[in-house]
Write a structure and sequence with these properties.
mainly beta, 12-stranded antiparallel β-sheet, 9 helices
Length: about 1000
């Protein structure tokens, strides 16, 4: 491994490269034609009171054209002297043409106001309504057409109010996007079917930190959408291919959130909104049990206050405060099956029923400031902070039986579990709670200089995301378990596709009495915490320069830039500790050792049968923690050693330093636009973890195994060490757009990218399962995944602001990370560990073959103004995506669709939307039976009624038909899992001044 340059030398190299890049970009080109004059100005939309981005401004009869910037400004150099005709083109609006006098060596200013297309007298009466809807669609379409990479753009107000403000609930309507749900939460972003860790999420082009899981796992690089908010986001860009100016570690694509900017509008705007949100299961103001062991009201308030102003077009300010509250039900059932023998067939061995309601709150603060020091020189500061909190019940009832105790006449819908005389047949009850807190803060200063055909941007970004999982700090234990053994039970359901179980106890102590639990067999480690703290920190500095030359009559835009970023991921605490409740008698099996319990707290909505009527007791985590504080001697550490190791060996960290530079060329010849770019990234990694000594070394040093002294020696005094690595990559990207006509455009693009190894391989730990006889080890030598994407689309514009498109891509993946590949005991480093003879060893590895994923996508959107009368007020959109991997990949949806219909009138607007995900393979049982998620169709609704020019009444609903998440095993008639979370409705009032 080569020695890394010192920080001083690296800084010097950075400055030299930056100077060379900017000088090369800004230096005059000898082949450039001498221009006669300069034309500049701004393009404004009076109906929306906003300046227009990406309007096409051109000199008719020449090859001179440009796009307006975010504040509506444009600059054209080398404009011929004399009277020229200037055209302004923006979809959904009349094309403007005006004659302008340009003087040699002078700068001429010309501003333009867009005029909406007016088809009939009816539309003239509703100009504001039509323009407001059209503006959002038109801006998005112009952004897409201006981009040289494959990109979908949507205005943040396109779909009306989004329940809870979760970004995932918004982006799920974009073509090619599927959202992974964690119970009720839209959490993981899939672009083109690819896993969430292959997608990047940025704010104004810079990475946003994410540490929602607060642990090192295979998906720790994935961005958690629940920590992002739609507040003060102007539009969403979904980049399906990347250019040289973008980070190369997003093979699926990049979701970019563009902040609102006061310079895009004239004057002041104040928005105040208040709301109430309620679950369909709790549509009242009464208090009821949970989350936690107490009672709470389930209707939650929310509000947004936003202020935007442009002061004399010199200082722009956007500031907002927001709060969202939601009560979500999360109830469900899961069934585990086994295959004792081919002759016997599948048997049911576990039924788990869960009731985990939660209250989620999200508080958001944004502050965006822009100041024009002088014409062409703008200093900006974008800031956003989010506090997200989940207060979650953790209530579980389990009915278990070993295969040998299932009666011969049992079926998958009528199972009898015989008394095994031990714990093999039992009922587990688990109570407890979890509090999850996430704080994410991002600040991005930037300086941008524009002069004629020159654009230079220098900026930085700092993003911090911290997640805490707390229980004792909130006053309870996260897991409180009890079990009753030496008994028998029977469970029946209407059919194998149902989760409506009816349970009957056949023998043993009565399961409705908490005194029956933990009586006959020890139940160790039945009191647990799940406390952990993790953080992700992103530091970024960048400089970009761009200049347009004119060579032989062709415009050539040269872009270059440098970027240095540091990403740190720290698991600061992993306090998964456990105790055994032994009571005042200091014996768990003593009849007086009875745990504090809750009765009547378990009634999962959406689950039928008799589970809610059994009144099975749950351990009271709050009362038990109070008892722990008063009488710690009532609790015995299950294994003092395991708690010690969890506390000492849990913290670890990983850091990546990525230095990148790029050059990109763009040109246009008649109807053809071309783009070519090269990016280089140099990556240095540091994994901060422990070097572990083997048992043979521990014994040789004279220690006794499984003692605190031995473990301290094993972990080298719990002093972490740094393991470093590095790799470099070059990435090509390019594309071409050809306009057959103004409406029909062919786009082809391609790029190379990388998928970085998970943090668990940079700073992972060994996991030993003595029950399953397996050992899983990290693989710090895991190679990055390298990928090539090829993309093509054909798009037809549907006026005034719609499209019909067909797209396709192919992604080739080399060195795909494959989890849990079996290796030999020697390869795992355990050759001299005889106590692990007979264990199986696993570690992540790189696939030896090339994986290919192909996708086809159809998308359509249109305002139906060509229809007569009432029907012209409707608009529709929809898309369908088909993904085809060359090998079956778990969790990748191969078919997905979304769509919706909207209605707009002067007083009322409504939007009904739907998402559909086809049947999706998830895993395989016993190497024979496949598990699949059922196809799922969800509907959302938003509506608003204009009470007056200032006030409007709003309504939004999420999953309004309460569609559950369901998984089946082998056959759609054999249910494996179902999760219900119902519908959530929000009623509000909004005022705009």
């Amino acid at each position: 491994m080569r020695v890394s340059p010192s920080p001083k030398r690296r800084a010097l190299q950075f400055l030299v490269a930056l100077t060379v890049s900017i000088v090369a970009c800004l230096a005059p080109a000898h082949a450039q034609l001498s221009g006669d004059g300069i034309l500049k100005g701004r393009v404004f939309n009076p109906a929306a009171k906003q300046y227009v981005n990406n309007a096409v401004v051109a000199i008719v009869g020449t090859n001179l054209s440009t796009l307006t910037t975010s504040d509506g400004s444009y600059t054209l150099s080398n404009v011929p002297t004399g009277v020229v005709t200037v055209s302004v083109d923006f979809t959904g609006y009349n094309k403007l043409e005006e004659k302008v006098m340009v003087s040699k060596g002078q700068t001429t200013t010309k501003d333009f106001d867009l005029i909406a297309v007016e088809q009939t007298e009816i539309l003239k009466l509703e100009t504001f309504v039509v323009s407001a809807e059209r503006q959002g669609n038109a801006k998005a379409l112009m952004d897409q057409r201006a981009a040289m990479n494959a990109k979908s753009v949507v205005s943040s107000d396109n779909f009306g109010d989004i329940t809870g403000g979760n970004m995932g609930e918004f982006v799920k309507y974009l073509p090619g996007v599927v959202i992974d749900y964690a119970d009720a939460d839209a959490r993981g972003l899939r672009i083109g079917g690819l896993n969430p860790e292959y997608a990047a999420v940025t704010m104004n082009g810079q990475r946003v930190a994410s540490a929602a899981s607060a642990q090192f796992g295979s998906g720790s690089r994935a961005f958690d959408l629940e920590q992002a908010s739609i507040v003060d986001v102007e539009s969403i860009e979904l980049n399906k291919t990347i250019t040289a100016s973008m980070d190369a570690d997003a093979p699926a694509g990049t979701l970019n959130m563009k902040s609102k900017n006061a310079f895009t509008r004239k004057g002041r705007e104040i928005v105040v909104a208040t709301s109430l949100s309620a679950s369909s299961y709790e549509m009242n103001f009464n208090k009821s049990p949970g989350p936690g062991d107490g009672e709470h009201r389930k209707i939650e308030p929310g509000f947004i206050v936003s202020y935007a102003n442009s002061f004399n077009d010199r200082f722009g300010l956007v500031v907002s405060l927001g709060h969202y509250g939601l009560f979500n039900e999360q109830s469900g059932a899961s069934m585990s099956y086994a295959l004792p023998s081919a002759a016997r067939g599948l048997v049911l061995n576990t039924i788990s029923l869960r009731d985990s309601p939660k209250i989620s709150t999200r508080d958001v603060f944004t502050l965006n400031m822009d100041y024009k020091l002088m014409p062409g020189l703008v200093v900006s500061l974008n800031t956003q902070g989010t506090h997200f909190e989940d207060d979650i019940n953790s209530h579980l009832q389990q009915f278990l039986v070993a295969n040998a105790q299932v009666t011969a006449d049992s079926t998958l819908s009528n199972t009898t579990a015989l008394d095994s005389g031990n714990i093999n047949t039992r009922v587990n009850t688990q109570g407890g709670n979890v509090n999850k807190f996430n704080d994410t803060f991002t600040i991005s200063p930037k300086v941008e200089f524009r002069h004629n055909a020159i654009n230079v941007t220098v900026g930085a970004s700092y993003s911090r995301s911290m997640t805490h999982y707390e229980d004792r700090r909130s006053g309870y234990f996260s897991v409180v378990g009890n079990r009753i053994s030496r008994m028998s039970w029977n469970a029946t359901r209407p059919n194998s596709a149902s989760a409506d179980w009816t349970f009957t106890q056949l023998s043993g102590r009565p399961w409705g009495d908490i005194a029956s639990y933990n009586r006959d067999d020890a139940n160790t480690s039945n009191v647990q915490t799940g406390e952990r703290v993790g953080g992700n920190f992103q530091k970024i500095g960048f400089a970009d320069a761009k200049k347009t030359f004119h060579i032989a009559g062709l415009p050539l835009t040269v872009s270059t830039g440098l970027k240095s970023s540091e990403s740190k991921y720290d698991l600061k605490r992993n306090g998964a500790l456990s105790w055994t409740y032994i009571g005042a008698a200091h014996s768990q099996l003593d009849p007086t050792t009875v745990m504090p319990a809750l009765y009547g707290a378990f009634s999962p909505p959406g689950i039928g049968g008799n589970i809610g009527k059994l009144n099975l007791p749950l351990g009271n985590g709050t009362a038990l923690y109070s008892l722990y504080k008063a009488h710690p001697d009532y609790f015995a550490e299950s294994t003092a050693l395991s708690n010690f190791i969890a506390f000492k060996a849990g913290p670890r960290g990983a850091k990546e330093q990525i230095d990148a530079g790029y050059v990109q060329l763009d040109t246009r010849w008649r109807r053809l636009r071309l783009n070519l770019g090269l990016r280089r990234e140099e990556t240095q990694t540091v994994g901060r973890t422990f070097d572990i000594r083997t048992n043979a070394q521990i014994l040789a040093a004279g220690y006794t195994l499984n003692t605190i002294e031995a473990e301290t020696y094993k972990y080298n005094g719990f002093t972490p060490v740094n393991h470093t690595g590095e790799y470099s990559n070059n990435f090509l990207s390019g594309g071409a757009k050809y306009s057959f006509s103004k409406k029909l455009v062919l786009h082809v693009a391609g790029n190379q990218s990388i998928g970085r190894p998970s943090y668990s391989n940079l700073a992972g730990v060994v996991s030993i399962n003595d029950s399953a006889l397996t050992v899983t080890v990290p693989n710090p030598e895991l190679k990055p995944q390298t990928m090539e994407k090829f993309y093509a689309s054909l798009e037809y514009a549907l006026e005034p602001a719609g499209t019909l498109s067909v797209t396709a891509y192919e992604l080739n993946i080399k060195n795909l990370s494959v989890a849990n590949t079996e290796i030999t005991q020697a390869e795992a480093g355990y050759a001299d560990e005889q106590q692990y003879n007979g264990y199986r060893f696993f570690r992540p590895a790189n696939a030896s073959d090339t994986r290919r994923i192909k996708s086809v996508e159809l998308a359509y959107s249109q305002q139906l103004i060509f229809l007569p009368g009432f029907a012209r007020k409707f608009s529709i959109f929809g898309s369908f995506t088909r993904v085809q991997p060359n090998v079956r990949l778990g969790g990748v949806p191969t078919k997905a669709a979304n769509g919706g219909i909207a209605y707009n009138s002067r007083k009322f607007r409504a939007n009904l939307r739907a998402t559909w995900t086809g049947r999706t393979y998830t895993s395989t049982l016993a190497n024979i039976f496949d598990n699949y998620r059922y196809a799922r169709l969800m509907f959302d609704l938003s509506a608003a009624y204009q009470i007056s020019e200032t006030y409007e009444l709003t309504l939004s609903g999420r999953n309004i038909l309460s569609e559950p998440i369901k998984v089946f095993t082998g056959s759609p008639n054999l249910l494996n899992q179902v999760v219900n979370y119902g519908a959530v409705w929000t009623l509000g009032v909004r005022a705009k001044f």
